[in-house]
């Protein structure tokens, strides 16, 4: 069996970043290290066009799923690192070929080190000849069963037979941080995925209304956060006790405006928590027209109470598109668990779809919501979740 000693990381969009590229690479390397922090044996080396992870005996196969989720990586390979001479290259390629089910193959050499005496085509032919003489494999340059990739560099040569696709995008954190309003539904975890893919780190804020919402509903949200935390290594979740404020809204406001007022209170709280945690924007899973609070008029009325920009990455998606993505990233089955959140327990029969800012302000003037908001923030619980399920840390 072939023993791989290195993981070779190839960059995604950051390869075009010019003067900022070094910062992007350093951020990407830190993000990978965070995702693999339970493997202290690993050693990382950053170069202009690759990151190399020396395994030091660690089994690489269990790491592949985690690495594939790290934004900023276009692809990666498990490789053998050998000396840059043709004998060592032939030997390593033959070992991989002998460990592979009999079929057709192609050798793809890339000679980054132009001082190496053999050109890429010469390497291809030399390696293929050794494999043909010592195995039952046949050459097929158009549709091979497997490819042997030979990357010749000045210091060493890296050889692999498989390229793993990865998440692409930008390294999380290069474009700042946002506070995501995370419910227990399908949409907001998908929004988290798309925000992180553009290089924005997220923290999450969740509104809980015990005893009307159960501890199971809270655990469901923490599990959703854990499932998407693999894309940035960890996520801080702010759990806001919303019961008293929510009851005050339904006591003093018209039922038709209750959802609008509730959302206005939520974004007020989210903005203040965001600013305290150095976030530059809010993010939501809103999809235009999906519910009463997601019409253009409702969004405008709700946004009126905050200054931070709001990122809505799934705003033009229909529900089927969002569901498909949630299944792809593995959050769907958790999202549909039957535990209600605070947005669904007091749903009015006829919520207003075109709320007026003036009318919303009139209702809010009927009670002292500022005191209630400060109490919510004061009693907020902060929990850090990580991709590998373990006991969460409470801050």
UniProtKB/TrEMBL annotation:
Q: What is its main location?
A: cytoplasm
The yes or no answer to whether the keyword tRNA-binding is present is yes
User: Which top EC class is named for this enzyme in its record?
Assistant: transferase
Binding sites annotated in the UniProt record for ATP: 181-182, 206-207, 263, 285, 294
Gene3D superfamilies, per the entry: 3.30.2130.30, HUPs
What EC number(s) is this enzyme filed under? 2.8.1.4
Family matches, as PROSITE patterns? THUMP (PS51165)
Protein keywords = ATP-binding, Cytoplasm, Nucleotide-binding, RNA-binding, Thiamine biosynthesis, Transferase, tRNA-binding
Q: In which pathway does it act?
A: Cofactor biosynthesis; thiamine diphosphate biosynthesis
Q: Where in the cell is it found?
A: Cytoplasm
Q: What GO terms are given for molecular function?
A: ATP binding; CCA tRNA nucleotidyltransferase activity; tRNA binding; tRNA-uracil-4 sulfurtransferase activity
Name one cellular component (GO) term.
cytosol
The UniProt entry, under CDD domains, shows: PPase_ThiI (cd01712), THUMP_ThiI (cd11716)
Domain named THUMP: residues: 61-163
Name of one Pfam family that matches: ThiI
Question: Does Membrane count among this protein's keywords?
Answer: no
Q: Which InterPro entries match?
A: Rossmann-like_a/b/a_fold, ThiI_AANH, ThiI_fer, ThiI_N, THUMP_dom, THUMP_ThiI, tRNA_STrfase, tRNA_sulfurtransferase_ThiI
Q: Which reaction does it catalyse?
A: [ThiS sulfur-carrier protein]-C-terminal Gly-Gly-AMP + S-sulfanyl-L-cysteinyl-[cysteine desulfurase] + AH2 = [ThiS sulfur-carrier protein]-C-terminal-Gly-aminoethanethioate + L-cysteinyl-[cysteine desulfurase] + A + AMP + 2 H(+); [ThiI sulfur-carrier protein]-S-sulfanyl-L-cysteine + a uridine in tRNA + 2 reduced [2Fe-2S]-[ferredoxin] + ATP + H(+) = [ThiI sulfur-carrier protein]-L-cysteine + a 4-thiouridine in tRNA + 2 oxidized [2Fe-2S]-[ferredoxin] + AMP + diphosphate
Any one GO biological process: thiamine diphosphate biosynthetic process
State the similarity comment: Belongs to the ThiI family.
- So what does this one do? Catalyzes the ATP-dependent transfer of a sulfur to tRNA to produce 4-thiouridine in position 8 of tRNAs, which functions as a near-UV photosensor. Also catalyzes the transfer of sulfur to the sulfur carrier protein ThiS, forming ThiS-thiocarboxylate. This is a step in the synthesis of thiazole, in the thiamine biosynthesis pathway. The sulfur is donated as persulfide by IscS.
The protein here is known as Probable tRNA sulfurtransferase
The organism's lineage? Bacteria, Bacillati, Bacillota, Erysipelotrichia, Erysipelotrichales
């Amino acid at each position: 069996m072939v023993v791989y000693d290195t993981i070779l990381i190839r960059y995604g969009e950051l390869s075009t970043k010019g003067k900022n590229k070094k910062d992007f690479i350093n951020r990407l390397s830190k993000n990978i290290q965070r995702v693999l922090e339970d493997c202290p044996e690993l050693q990382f080396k950053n170069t202009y066009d690759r990151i190399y992870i020396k395994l030091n005996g660690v089994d690489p196969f269990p790491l592949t799923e985690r690495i594939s989720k790290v934004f900023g990586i276009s692809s990666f390979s498990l490789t053998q690192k050998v000396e840059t001479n043709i004998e060592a290259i032939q030997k390593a390629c033959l070992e991989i070929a002998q460990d592979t089910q009999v079929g057709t193959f192609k050798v793809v050499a890339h000679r980054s080190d132009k001082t190496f005496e053999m050109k890429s085509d010469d390497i291809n032919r030399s390696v293929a000849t050794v494999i043909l003489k010592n195995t039952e494999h046949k050459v097929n340059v158009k549709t091979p069963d497997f490819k042997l990739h030979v990357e010749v560099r000045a210091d060493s040569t890296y050889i692999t037979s498989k390229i793993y696709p990865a998440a692409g995008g930008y390294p999380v954190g290069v474009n700042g941080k946002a506070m995501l309003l995370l419910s227990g539904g399908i949409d907001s975890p998908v929004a988290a995925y798309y925000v992180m893919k553009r290089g924005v780190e997220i923290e999450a804020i969740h509104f809980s209304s015990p005893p009307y919402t159960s501890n199971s509903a809270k655990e469901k949200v923490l599990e959703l956060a854990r499932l998407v935390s693999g894309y940035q290594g960890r996520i801080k979740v702010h759990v806001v006790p919303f019961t008293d404020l929510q009851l005050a809204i339904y006591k003093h406001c018209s039922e038709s405006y209750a959802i609008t007022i509730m959302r206005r209170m939520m974004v007020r709280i989210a903005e203040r928590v965001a600013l305290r945690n150095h976030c530059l924007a809010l993010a939501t899973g809103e999809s235009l027209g999906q519910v009463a609070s997601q019409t253009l008029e409702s969004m405008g009325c709700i946004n009126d109470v905050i200054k931070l920009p709001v990122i809505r990455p799934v705003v033009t998606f229909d529900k089927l598109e969002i569901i498909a993505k949630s299944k792809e990233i593995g959050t769907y089955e958790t999202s549909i668990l039957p535990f209600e959140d605070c947005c669904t327990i007091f749903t009015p029969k006829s919520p207003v779809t075109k709320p007026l800012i003036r009318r919303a302000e009139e209702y809010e003037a009927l009670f002292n919501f500022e005191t209630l908001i400060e109490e919510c923030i004061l009693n907020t619980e902060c929990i850090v979740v990580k991709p590998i399920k373990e006991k969460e840390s409470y801050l």
